[in-house]
């Protein structure tokens, strides 16, 4: 309170003095004219100009400097390999058909010496009705391959999927089922037998169950029992005595139970002199699964049986955690390392005379079955959608060239 009162008095006195100085008084000299007194405070000496602060050295940013994108120097995969280097291609009426896409044609002719039809040589396409074989699209592909120095791996003859509904719904005795299946194989394999372009077949595809390694209960198994396997390979060999005949399946390198079941099945067939030349490892894998040692161990088991190993459908997912909305350089480099590791494992473990080859399952990431099947973004293959090469291409090349 005291402070307030003193302040009020001083303010009042000051007002009075100001008013007086402005002539607000009566002119009576008894009232002293206010002369401004020098302030008690000295005029401030001008501050020396502030020394400019030194320009701060930029702090290193928290983000690491981005790695430079490693150069991709591959001109041809197939020239680096002493075994077939293949790729699955679309054909027929597909928008990305190898027959019409010059971008894909350039890639295939530079890097591959074998093709697999991604779809059009499956039963539903080539045998759409019991008495109808439809070879137009397949012939077009095989002719394209022949004209361009490519071999064809036939995919596939006996499968539970992508068969025409007439086959699924076929009604007959076991003997009729046998005749139906053998005619199917004889007709198709025979159609391509003389051309020396179709050099191998996935005769039976995916016959083993994932859960217990037993035979899958497909229409073939349900109607013919396990004998359908021997019948299929025997018919295929009879129709083409020099095509290589494979048993093809997925998850063989990542599911030990399934691998054991598949190899036991094949060994039983070999013991009965059924003609099987090798095992097709589809290898739809990820950057981290299966382990390298599981992959090597699986190849080794097949080699130990004296059978060929063919990697038939290789692709490598990178977005298993579903956290990528675009392919980062980091993921691309991890994927390339994975491709390299798989190819190195193949060359290390499989002796040259048992190498059936390595095929990737599609050309560009946009061609791949993976996004659709996984329901997420994926970039599993060796080329971008604009046909530019990915680090994965370099990974395969490095795997083919390492000592
Ligand atoms: O051609 C029709 C088109 O007319 C229609 O409009 C469209 C609508 O869905 O479907 C088209 O057919 C699709 C076909 O691919 C051709 O693009 C089928 O729906 C689709 O299911 C089919 O997927 C194929 C899948 O096998 C079928 O199981 C994939 O392209 C093919 O990459 C994939 O390949 C399999 C191997 O044969 C065996 N191993 C596993 C591998 C991956 O699943």
Write the layout of secondary structure elements.
Blueprint: H1 2-21, E1 85-89, H2 102-111, E2 114-117, H3 123-126, H4 136-147, E3 151-158, H5 165-168, H6 174-192, E4 198-205, H7 219-224, H8 227-239, E5 244-249, H9 256-271, E6 278-281, E7 284-286, H10 292-304, E8 308-317, H11 329-349, E9 355-360, H12 370-374, H13 391-401
Parallel strand pairs: 1-2, 1-9, 2-3, 3-4, 4-5, 5-6, 6-8, 7-8, 8-9
Helix pairs in contact: 6-8, 10-11, 11-13
Ligand G3I is lined by residues 118-119, 161-162, 250, 282, 313, 369.
Helix fraction, binned, reads 25-40%
Gyration radius from CA atoms, angstroms: 39 Å
Structural class label: alpha/beta
CATH class: Alpha Beta
Write the CATH homologous superfamily.
Answer: Glycosidases
- What is the average per-residue confidence, as pLDDT, rounded to a whole number? 88
Q: Globular, elongated, flat, extended or rod-shaped: what is the shape? A: globular
- Termini Cα gap: 95 Å
Count of distinct strands: 9
The ordered string of helix (H) and strand (E) elements is HEHEHHEHHEHHEHEEHEHEHH
In spatial order, strands of the major sheet run 1-2-3-4-5-6-8-9
Number of domains: 1
Q: What characterizes the major β-sheet?
A: 8 strands, parallel, barrel
CATH architecture group name: Alpha-Beta Barrel
Number of helices: 13
The CATH topology comes to TIM Barrel
Query: Poorly predicted ranges (pLDDT <50, ≥5 residues)?
Result: 1-50
> What portion of residues belong to β-strands?
5-15%
Ligands present: ligand G3I
């Amino acid at each position: 309170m005291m402070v307030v009162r003193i302040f009020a008095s001083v303010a009042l006195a000051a007002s009075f003095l100001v008013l007086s100085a402005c002539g607000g008084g009566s002119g009576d000299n008894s009232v002293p004219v206010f002369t401004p007194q020098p302030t008690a405070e000295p005029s401030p000496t001008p501050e020396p100009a502030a020394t400019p602060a030194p320009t701060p050295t930029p702090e290193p940013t928290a983000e690491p400097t981005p790695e430079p994108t490693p150069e991709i120097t591959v001109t041809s995969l197939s020239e680096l390999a002493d075994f077939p280097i293949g790729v699955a291609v679309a054909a027929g009426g597909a928008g990305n058909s190898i027959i019409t896409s010059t971008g894909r044609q350039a890639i295939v002719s530079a890097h591959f010496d074998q093709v697999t039809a991604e779809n059009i040589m499956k039963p539903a396409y080539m045998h759409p009705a019991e008495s109808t074989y439809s070879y137009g699209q397949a012939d077009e592909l095989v002719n394209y391959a022949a004209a361009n120095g490519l071999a064809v791996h036939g995919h596939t003859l006996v499968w539970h999927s992508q068969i025409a509904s007439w086959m699924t719904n076929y009604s007959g005795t076991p003997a009729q089922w046998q005749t139906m299946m053998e005619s199917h194989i004889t007709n198709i394999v025979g159609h391509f037998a003389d051309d020396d372009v179709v050099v191998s077949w996935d005769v039976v595809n995916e016959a083993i169950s994932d859960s217990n390694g037993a035979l899958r209960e497909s229409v073939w198994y349900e109607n013919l029992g396990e004998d359908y396997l021997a019948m299929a390979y025997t018919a295929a060999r009879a129709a083409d005595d020099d095509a290589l005949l494979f048993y093809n399946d997925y998850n063989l390198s990542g599911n030990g139970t399934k691998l054991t079941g598949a190899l036991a099945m094949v060994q039983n067939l070999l013991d009965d002199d059924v003609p099987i030349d090798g095992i097709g490892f589809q290898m739809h894998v990820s950057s981290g699964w299966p382990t390298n040692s599981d992959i090597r161990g699986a190849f080794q088991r097949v080699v130990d049986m004296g059978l060929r190993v063919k990697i038939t459908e290789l692709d490598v997912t990178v977005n298993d955690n579903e956290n990528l909305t675009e392919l980062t350089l980091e993921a691309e480099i991890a994927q390339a390392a994975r491709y390299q590791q798989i190819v190195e494992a193949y060359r290390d473990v499989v002796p040259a005379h048992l190498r059936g080859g390595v095929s990737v399952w599609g050309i560009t990431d946009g061609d791949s079955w993976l996004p659709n099947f996984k329901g997420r973004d994926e970039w599993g293959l060796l080329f971008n959608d604009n046909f530019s090469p990915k680090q994965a291409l370099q990974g395969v090349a490095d795997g083919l060239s390492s000592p």
